[in-house]
Write a structure and sequence with these properties.
With 362 residues, this protein is α+β, with helices and mostly antiparallel strands. Helix content is 56%, strand content 14%.
């Protein structure tokens, strides 16, 4: 006999998931985020080249096209090589596709060696081309470095900055917002004045001031973690406001009063009874805050006061796209900006879907 699930017996999580699946853009965004995080996890394996290896013979080389037809016949996926011509007067480099240079794509190709997750050394890449020829699907930069490989490595850094920053913001927002809303009175007024003080300052100039305070001789790893701390110290205020408002609305509800009368400690009342009642609102707020963190890191690095080379992030890569003349001749340098746009849109779609699914009136 088939099992019948009664709507009234559905768990809140299952109800949230069913409502979320109706939002097609949100589902699409969830799949897109899965791809982004998959690329970040396996960046070394997927990237065809070491992102720091320079190829002086292919400076500002345009993107190669993957082809399957050669001389009117079906061929295994391949790319054509380039013939370089340099103008001696202007030093302008011109690349022309050379049909005589055919490089077939290979799966699980052995190329540049790397340390996979810092655990073991290997040289196996997802794909590559014969004869150790350069594969430049997104072109190269001013030093001849493969842009696709650099964007993949930058994906890991940029999106983890957002996740770590949001995690720290979540802890601060839940703690201070929960205390403010639960106790009220003087505690609430002090916390709200601190929040208002932080919100008074424009975000970008404040980030710039805090980031510029880092000594130039600090290691990239140290700067990386300090950037996440800076972002989280500013980004917690909105979440704290959300938590405070929810706390004020339910702190006099019967189940909360019953828990107090039953002798439950303050921490238990907040953590076990109050926070779970508006978990969906917290999830939505956090989901919408992650792209803000990523955009903040990208903006700081783009301005040269965030992450610095040799660290690779989307913002660091976009530093090379500051010059209009450079973009006019080498538009593929804007590839990191496309990655930023797609990532932010995907998170916003997911956030919209979660917001609609958590709204009991829809």
């Amino acid at each position: 006999m088939a099992k019948v699930i009664q709507p009234g017996l559905e768990s809140p999580g299952r109800l949230l998931w069913h409502r979320f699946r109706r939002h097609r853009l949100a589902v699409f965004g969830l799949w897109a985020l899965g791809i982004f995080y998959g690329l970040a996890l396996f960046a070394e394996f997927i990237a065809p080249h070491d992102p720091n290896v320079r190829d002086l013979d292919h400076i500002y080389a345009p993107p190669q096209r993957i082809r399957i037809i050669h001389n009117g016949r079906l061929h295994r996926p391949f790319v054509y090589g380039y013939t370089l011509t340099v103008d001696r007067e202007t030093l302008t480099r011109t690349y022309e596709v050379d049909p005589a240079q055919i490089y077939t794509l290979r799966l699980f190709y052995r190329g540049d060696s790397y340390s996979f997750w810092g655990l073991w050394e290997t040289s196996v890449h997802l794909f590559g081309v014969d004869d150790d020829a350069p594969l430049m699907l997104l072109g190269t930069d001013r030093m001849g470095r493969d842009l696709l490989s650099r964007v993949l490595y930058g994906t890991r850094v940029s999106i983890t900055v957002g996740l770590i920053g949001v995690t720290l913001s979540l802890l601060l927002g839940l703690t201070l917002g929960g205390v403010s809303g639960y106790f009220g009175g003087v505690t609430d007024r002090v916390v709200q004045r601190v929040i208002e003080l932080i919100q008074v300052f424009p975000s970008i100039p404040l980030w710039m001031a805090l980031s510029a305070a880092f000594p130039a001789d600090w290691s990239p790893t140290t700067v990386y973690f300090l950037i996440t701390i800076v972002l989280s110290l500013i980004g917690w205020v909105e979440l704290a406001r959300v938590v405070r408002g929810q706390m004020l609305s339910i702190r006099d509800e019967e189940f909360v009063v019953a828990a107090r009368i039953g002798g439950a400690r303050t921490g238990r009342v907040i953590a076990r009874h109050m926070l779970p009642s508006f978990t969906s609102h917290i999830i939505v707020a956090v989901t919408l805050q992650v792209p803000e963190m990523v955009l903040a890191e990208t903006a700081l690095s783009f301005l040269g006061i965030g992450l610095r080379p040799p660290t690779i992030s989307w913002g660091v890569l976009l530093e090379e796209a500051q010059n209009v003349r450079t973009i006019a001749f080498h538009p593929w340098l804007l590839a990191p900006a496309i990655a930023v746009i797609l990532y932010v849109l995907a998170f916003n779609f997911v956030g919209d879907g979660l917001r609609d699914a958590a709204d009991p009136h829809k």
